[in-house]
Input
Amino acid sequence: QVQLVESGGGLVQAGGSLRLSCAASGRTFSTYARGWFRQAPGKEREFVAHINWSGSRTYYTDSVKGRFTISRDNAKNTVYLQMNSLKLEDSAVYYCAAGSGNWPVVKYDYWGQGTQVTVSS
Output
């Protein structure tokens, strides 16, 4: 059974940092693109960051550029999202995904259950 399991979410003060992890099991995703998305209450799920299979290319939504960093460890079948200088508007459920294709045409076939990130003032 293929699973993506996020961890590392929690409550943090504005300006603080969190590191999310997404561990995959059931198959190897070393050749898959990986991504992070988020969904705040009452809003649609939005793209946050993307990394290609080798880790050589990354892409971010404008609102997190310079603050968030996506990375991956294919040996551990894991992708990370380092979030610095967190803002109130970063509060959301964060989801990781795995998919095929090359940016920007990526089909995410696998999704995690999400981890809550809450930024307080």
